[in-house]
Every structure is written in structure tokens, then in C-alpha cells.
């Protein structure tokens, strides 16, 4: 049983073919990698904006249902949730900081840096907008006079 192995019909790939495929994959990864990094960075920023929105909403609901005044004090590097008529006379606070590369800019609230909710009310006594940014991407977070809270990517 002798088999005739043909030398003109090799099985497998040549080194050149493997290098060409690896080159194509390298070019594709170089093109896709920066896009993926940007998307991850934007998603992280939106995640922090959503957390801030949720915390403002939580304080709004808490003030309305527990009938205690409260609010959120906004800083450049984070924010503080508080109970009381204002941040300066707050009885209980919970401070949250943003990562080092994120900060809050363009704080356009009707009264300083505080979003205030009177006891037993959904409507804030202070409303407006602020911008959360990481230097590359920005998110506008706003609360209107009816108490609706949302954000959008700029």
C-alpha cells in the first residue's frame, strides 16, 4: 500500500499567506481600537451622568414622600446629597466624588450650586442645568421647574 503523495497539492497555508492575513487583522485592529476606546470613554461619562440623575431623583422622591426638605449641592469634582433647607444648614449629608478626569462645569442653576426640594413637594425650588465633562465628551444634565430630570450628550 504505497500512497503517492503529490508535491503539487500541499495541505495547509504558506508562511506568506499567514503573514498577509495577520497584516490585514492588524490593520483592522488599528482602525477599530480607537473607536472602541472612545465609545468606552463616552459610556463611562454617561454612566456617571445617569448616577447623578438618579441621585437627584432619589432626593426629590425622598423630600416629597418623607416630607423633609433636601437637595443636592454641586461641586466641580462631585456633589453632596443633603437633608435640610440648604446645604449650609444640612443635618445629614452624603458626599460623592467624580473620578480625577471628570468634572462638572457650566453650573447654571437659579440659586447658586444647590438643587433644592421643599418638604412634601416634587417641584424643585431651584432648577437649571449643568455640564458633566471629561475633556473630550460632555453631557448636559438638566432639571426643569416641574421637577423633570434628564440628560443628553453634547
Fold and architecture overview:
The protein has one helix at residues 15-66, and strands at residues 70-75, 78-83, 92-97, 103-109, 114-117, 128-133, 138-143, 149-153. It is an alpha+beta fold. The protein has a four-stranded antiparallel beta sheet, covered by helices on one side.
What's the total number of strands? 8
Q: Could you give a short account of the major beta sheet? A: 4 strands, antiparallel
Gyration radius over CA: 27 Å
* CATH-assigned fold name: minor pseudopilin epsh fold
Task: Describe the oligomeric state of these chains in a short phrase.
Answer: single chain
Organism: Candidatus Dojkabacteria bacterium HGW-Dojkabacteria-1
Pfam family, one: N_methyl
Protein name: General secretion pathway GspH domain-containing protein
InterPro entries: N_methyl_site, Pilin-like
Care to give the gist of this entry?
The strands form 2 sheets. This protein has a 4-stranded antiparallel beta sheet with strand order 3-2-1-5, covered by helices on one side. The protein has a 4-stranded antiparallel beta sheet with strand order 4-6-7-8, covered by helices on one side. The mean pLDDT is 90. The chain has 1 helix and 8 strands.
Write the layout of secondary structure elements.
Blueprint: H1 15-66, E1 70-75, E2 78-83, E3 92-97, E4 103-109, E5 114-117, E6 128-133, E7 138-143, E8 149-153
Antiparallel strand pairs: 1-2, 1-5, 2-3, 4-6, 6-7, 7-8
Amino acid at each position: 500500500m504505497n500512497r503517492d503523495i503529490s508535491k503539487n497539492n500541499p495541505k495547509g497555508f504558506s508562511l506568506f499567506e499567514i503573514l498577509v492575513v495577520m497584516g490585514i487583522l492588524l490593520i483592522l485592529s488599528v482602525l477599530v481600537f480607537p473607536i472602541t476606546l472612545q465609545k468606552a470613554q463616552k459610556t463611562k461619562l454617561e454612566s456617571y451622568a445617569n448616577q447623578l440623575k438618579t441621585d437627584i431623583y432619589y432626593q426629590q422622591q425622598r423630600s416629597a414622600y418623607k416630607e423633609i426638605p433636601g437637595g443636592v449641592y454641586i461641586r466641580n469634582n462631585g456633589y453632596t446629597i443633603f437633608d435640610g433647607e440648604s446645604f449650609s444648614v444640612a443635618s445629614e449629608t452624603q458626599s460623592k466624588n467624580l473620578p480625577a478626569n471628570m468634572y462638572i462645569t457650566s453650573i447654571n442653576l437659579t440659586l447658586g450650586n444647590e438643587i433644592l426640594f421643599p418638604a412634601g413637594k416634587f417641584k424643585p425650588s431651584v432648577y437649571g442645568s449643568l455640564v458633566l465633562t471629561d475633556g473630550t465628551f460632555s453631557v448636559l444634565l438638566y432639571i426643569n421647574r416641574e421637577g423633570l430630570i434628564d440628560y443628553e450628550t453634547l
